[in-house]
């Protein structure tokens, strides 16, 4: 079994979600320092990015390492928060200020985010699930709808 399939299988478990939450601070530091080229697991095996938002209360930059899917030149991310009952802080930050930055594949891009419409969500969710099937399990663990955001490169 290859490493990605193993990650997909493990990613559906509650234990993996707890481990992921615990390792996320270190992972953010490694990813930030390497512009997304390295993670706590070595070279990323899944498509991912480092999203930098502006804290809606603090006004300070906040980083989140997220698995992503592509939609043309745009990135798509989901606020699963490992299936916890509350939305992740980065998603609340994007609702307050949609201007953000992504570090991906060794480059940094300014983006503007929007919450996916119902039609976009229906079209994009299969791509997110193909990248990380665990999102189905995370959605089943919570009563909230998982927010799906589309990150579009900002005009130069």
TrEMBL record:
Signal peptide: none annotated. Belongs to the F420H(2)-dependent quinone reductase family. GO terms for molecular function: coenzyme F420 binding; oxidoreductase activity. Gene3D superfamilies: Electron Transport, Fmn-binding Protein, Chain A. GO terms for cellular component: plasma membrane. It comes from the Bacteria. InterPro entries: F420H2_quin_Rdtase, Split_barrel_FMN-bd. It holds the Pfam family F420H2_quin_red. This is Nitroreductase. It catalyses: oxidized coenzyme F420-(gamma-L-Glu)(n) + a quinol + H(+) = reduced coenzyme F420-(gamma-L-Glu)(n) + a quinone. It comes from Cellulomonas biazotea.
